[in-house]
Amino acid sequence: MPGSTNGSNSTKTMGVITVGGLVVVTAYTVALGSNGWLWFGWVVLGLITLGLVVTARST
């Protein structure tokens, strides 16, 4: 399918951003202490990424 390559690339990009966000939030937590809003934001980002993965596999 022509659109699957583009979807795969955007899903991979979103995955990289999500993992990078986890690294940043973890580093912030270690250096300055926990911030609930950062973790909440990361969880939302992770759920969006998970939704993209599920959507990409179903098409």
User: Helical segment tally?
Assistant: 2
Estimated radius of gyration: 14 Å
Question: Main beta sheet: strand number and arrangement?
Answer: none
Q: What percentage of amino acids are in beta strands? A: under 5%
Q: Helicity, in percent?
A: over 70%
Overall morphology: elongated
Provide the descriptors you would attach to this structure in a database record.
59 residues, mainly alpha, 92% helix
Commentary on this structure:
This protein has 59 residues and is mostly helical. The longest helix has 31 residues. The mean pLDDT is 87.
Give a nutshell description of this structure:
The chain has helices at 2-32, 36-58. The chain is mostly helical and 59 residues long.
Summarize the helices and strands and which ones pair or pack.
Blueprint: H1 2-32, H2 36-58
Helix pairs in contact: 1-2
